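ok trying again, last paste got cut off:
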Amino acid sequence: MRTSKRPIKSGTTGKKLVDDLKPFGKLIQTTYRNDSLLSKPQLAKFSQTSRVMLGTIQKQIDTKLVQCPLDVTAITYCHDRRFMKLMAILPSGERYRVDELVEKLNELLLGDITEATFYQQQQPKVLEKSLPNDISDKTKRANQTLKQRLRQLTESKLQLTQQYQQLKVALSQKEKALCDQMLLNQELTQKLETVCETNATYQFKIKKQQQEMGAIREQVRKKQTKIKQEQRTQLKPDTKHICPKTDNRALYKKIADLQLKLSLSQQHQQQMQQMKTTQAQQISRSERIRQLTSELNQTCVSEYHPLLRLVDKYNQLVSEDVVLWHQIQGRLVHDGDEWLFIDRQANEYLLTSEGMNGLLVEELTTAYYYSARQRLDTKFIRLIRQLNIPVTNERDVVKQVHESVEPMIEANYQVLIISWWGETVKNATQKLKRLGIKVVWLDPSDVNNDKIVHEMHKPQYDFQLIVLRGAHHEIVTAAHRLRRLGRCVKVANNPGVSAMVSFVREALKERCDHQTRV
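nice, full thing came through this time. structure:
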């Protein structure tokens, strides 16, 4: 394909531009081809580009314009809204259209016009035929611009209206809260004034009582002083028969003997204290614990309350629970003059008078079960109360001992228990396994909190039981979050074995009923 370069000509006369004006003329043609009305950023860019392009002909213009020089870099540009044209303003104040300015600069450089002719003001030529079409096109574009601007202003107005409404609602809420706070402050101020008045009244009463008590004490003191003076006068010895001259040698000897005994007793006391300190240093820790235990009795038991912190510290160090008593259930058997306690596992224990725990022998019965506490080290039994579970026959007893040989539900449910009560969880786990329920037990004192929370989020567990005592704050928070999400989770406050089994059975029964209905 052949390409021909057309020479760049001026807009009116059609003369060829000089080489140095060709870039600026090409810029003018490009600008007029796109749109004569430029935006502010485009107008600034056009002005900057024109300064650079016209700067190349500055020396040639200086040679042509001697009397009144022209600085081409000081030329500014603006829009003429009447004719929708881009205008150039010279430093001397003359206004030309951009294409007319290019034409005059070209004629000046070619030598066609002189300096005087260059500065003659010319009115912009308007083609009467093309003006209406140009004006209509420009008017359409201006209308479109105004419509777009109106649309933007309308959207801005809607947004500002919404923001105003929101701020108005927020302001009303804050005013209401402020009013409530002011009312509350007024009520508190009134209560404070009432309390101050009551306090002043009590202070006055207290001062009055103190004055009365001081007067009573003064009267008592005077009476006691009077009584003591009377007693002294009664016990005053008769000095008539005392010999005025006595021998003091025996008295001095007694004083010396007493001082010697006092010094010997002080030395003996110091030796005893030194022996006690050396013995205390040599006594082992176990011996100290034995001495502490031997001194415990009913009168000083209230002073041993710090030992509870010692037990907690021991449990934290060895990661176990020191539990001396656990709760069991069983029935009574009367054998002659003795009463036997038979637990659910058919173990027999002799019931002493201390083990009856205040229950009268006449009130004991073999027809109902009893709850009791058993000491783990001595197997000592102490009754608690009678249960409302009757004992029918041996078959029912064996059935209640094993609770159920058949699984509670056909489906294999899985339960997660989080607790540090080891013995209680073990007994509950054994009973739940007899019901066909798989139990997973996590101890917060052995397992990390992050691992426990990760295990709680697993979907394989049908029920989760979290014991509040021993569970950390993160675990309890995760349990409440899972419960809000619809998971079957319960947070209990230190339940026993029977309570744990009851919680699990009720939860799984409700789950089974729900699945049956669905």
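cool. The chain has four domains: 19-126, 142-229, 325-402, 414-517. The radius of gyration is 55 Å.
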